[in-house]
Specification:
Order of helices and strands: HEHEEEHHEEEEEEEEEEEEEEEEEHHH
Radius of gyration: 21 Å
Helix content: 10-25%
Strand content: 35-45%
Number of domains: 2
Oligomer: single chain
Distance between the termini: 62 Å
Number of strands: 21
Low-confidence stretches: none
């Protein structure tokens, strides 16, 4: 109890603590999002507009080819369903705390409540979210899908998620974050703590599709044990006010591996401060950080950091940015070696599309905007799997528009 009280005091003291990166948001400008909302049993009974919102972040309302589904509207859980209880466990974090006493041993252990004002706010509000667990040796053939929605104006949504993939298990998660139609201003504070046990694999895809005046502050830490793998895909292609994310992966067991892919577009008025950090704390660990960012008038900052604390670790960091129609690109690679037997490398490049590339494709019969669109599509392709057809169509439409505006 004393430890909890000390933690609360530290969080209260951090409510005015500005984050190290990104625009500073005044928490007092936002009301607390409601914890009450109508439950939705059948997602196909949602309005066509709401279903389209879900589809545009990779969430399938029909729940076809999904192991489970979870929706949080504002701060209320409105839907939670599970098709195969033998291979995965899915429920709200608060329910998980009641069901399993041991869940508290995973809560607020990777992300510290006093990291900044956003983590402090989430801790003090006892933020709810999703709890996903893949039992030891279980391998789900279908992904779990989750969606975090802001449905009210001028509110802050606080979320706390915990994902545990136990020894030898495999789990795919597709999570989408968005706003309901007509909601422009708001603040999303998302805490995610993920544990990948020995020999386990977690594939985690996150799609953001926010309103134009939304501030987004996710705080994520992933703990990977011996022989474990964590693959992350992050996609944000639509206008948003500000996103600042710097997830950290701790490679704590021999032979652990991670790959983090980021594809993002900064539209006019948007500020994207995105990056990934990997800390090699065990031998024979490997990591790949791949970033593809485009600015069409906004501000894009791509950070990447690798800290090597163990021998025979290998890591590669790749940050590529395109400037189309103005805006700003900044790439900030950081490599730190604290042992002798280590291999870390980086490749960073920012600039515009080479005119000769466009002319080469035009010489083969493509219109200029189609040529630019093809180059952009290839630039953003980092091999993300499992995206629904509806989302692919939305991504293609966004890329086509970028091509039109870049000429």
């Amino acid at each position: 109890m004393q430890a909890d009280e000390d933690m609360r005091k530290r969080a209260e003291a951090a409510l005015k603590k500005t984050a190290e990166y990104g625009e500073d948001f005044d928490l007092d400008e936002y009301g607390l999002a409601s914890e009450e909302a109508e439950q939705t049993a059948d997602l196909e009974e949602l309005s066509e507009e709401d279903q389209r919102t879900l589809l545009n972040v990779g969430f399938t309302p029909s729940e076809d080819n999904r192991a489970g589904s979870f929706i949080m509207l504002n701060n209320a859980v409105t839907h939670s369903s599970l098709r195969d209880k033998d291979v995965v466990e899915l429920m709200s974090l608060r329910d998980a705390m009641k069901t399993h006493e041991w869940v508290k041993d995973y809560s607020w252990k990777l992300v510290k409540p006093d990291t900044d004002k956003y983590t402090a706010m989430s801790y003090l509000q006892d933020a709810n979210g999703y709890f996903i667990r893949a039992p030891a040796g279980k391998k789900s053939k279908m992904p779990v899908q989750t969606c975090l929605l802001i449905g009210s104006k001028d509110v802050s949504q606080t979320v706390h998620n915990i994902v545990i993939v136990e020894e030898g298990a495999e789990l795919d998660v597709i999570t989408g974050c968005s706003t309901k139609h007509g909601i422009e201003k708001g603040l999303h504070l998302g805490i995610s703590e993920m544990y990948v046990k020995k020999g386990a694999t977690l594939n985690f895809t996150m799609i953001h599709n926010w309103g134009e005046e939304i501030g987004v502050r996710p705080r994520t830490v992933v703990h990977v044990e011996e022989g474990g793998s964590y693959i992350s895909n992050y996609i944000t292609l639509k206008p948003v006010k500000s996103v600042q994310a710097y997830p950290t992966v701790l490679l704590e067991g021999k032979g652990a591996f991670t790959r983090l892919n980021t594809i993002a577009v900064a539209h006019p008025g948007s500020e994207l401060d995105l990056g990934s950090r990997v800390i090699f704390n065990a031998e024979d660990t490997k990591a790949e950080l791949i970033s593809r960012t485009i600015t069409t008038g906004g501000k894009a900052i791509a950070r990447g950091e690798m800290i090597g604390n163990a021998n025979n670790a290998k890591g590669h960091l790749e940050c590529h940015g395109l400037v189309l129609g103005g805006g700003m690109q900044r790439a900030i690679p950081i490599l730190e070696a604290n042992v002798e037997d280590i291999e870390l490398s980086h490749e960073a490049a920012v600039g515009r599309i080479a005119r000769e590339q466009i002319e080469y494709l035009m010489a083969r019969g493509l219109a200029e905007e189609d040529a630019v669109g093809m180059i952009v599509r290839g630039f953003l392709d980092v091999g993300i799997q499992g995206i629904p057809d509806e989302l692919k169509a939305d991504i293609d439409a966004t890329i086509a528009k970028i091509g039109e505006n870049a000429i």
